[in-house]
Amino acid sequence: MTADGIVAVVVSYRSAETIELCLQRLRAADGVTAIRVVDNGSDDGTLGIVQRVAASEPRLKFIANPDNPGFAVACNQGARAADEPWIAFVNPDCLVERDTLARMRALAAGIAPALLGCELVDENGAADVAARRRDPDFAAMLANALGGGTDLSLTTDGTPLQRVDAVSGALMLLPRTLFDAVGGFDEAYRLHAEDLDLCRRVREAGGTVAIANAVRVVHVRGVSSRSRPFFVEWHKHLGLWRYFRKFEADRRSTPMRAAVALAIAARFASRALSIVLSTIAGR
Q: Rounded to two decimals, what is the model's pTM?
């Protein structure tokens, strides 16, 4: 470990399609002094790939969970399995460039304490709208057709560092001191919304959340989600409900709380129906 070393934490689940390339990129990345892979019970050969890479990479250690305790739990496991002063959470479908994490670290150090994200694009260069976001607005969600959803995404303002409410959990970097100060990820989230939660708690603790607009990373979205769409949607909506209860419910009336619960349930039902119809159409 060096005084400014970065541990790259990768949480995998059925990630065989991209995990090897992701790890190759991290091995070549400037500033990365440790790599921790936490596998959540993959059954597609992911762990075998990780083991093979680890055999020739002393910086890489892995944790093989026998089941899937959730993304937040695994992130905390990976972060605490190293002691580097900087932590980067990198999805197994994110392909960093050699200088990505070092550039983000330099930018974060200039506005410390800070949690940083970066511009995320797909293989065709299309921007990921989740890269920079507002906090969820539950009143607007209700106004918009009872749970049809509101657009939380923000556009770039063209500055090197754009302060935002939240960045995507697909790639986050922050100093360990800040991660420890807010207690890491909230492990009550299983999948989705834990990134919104972490960003909000960082801001409430006096930190800054920002996106490095000039740092661009390819994000091959949804690799592990394709095989379990119902699971993903269910926990996405559970996460939204937990976020509301944790940060907003105490400030809302009983009718408002009930309306939000119904809106989230209705939105899940709509998404579930859409999945069923897509499955039938694809047969």
A: 0.92
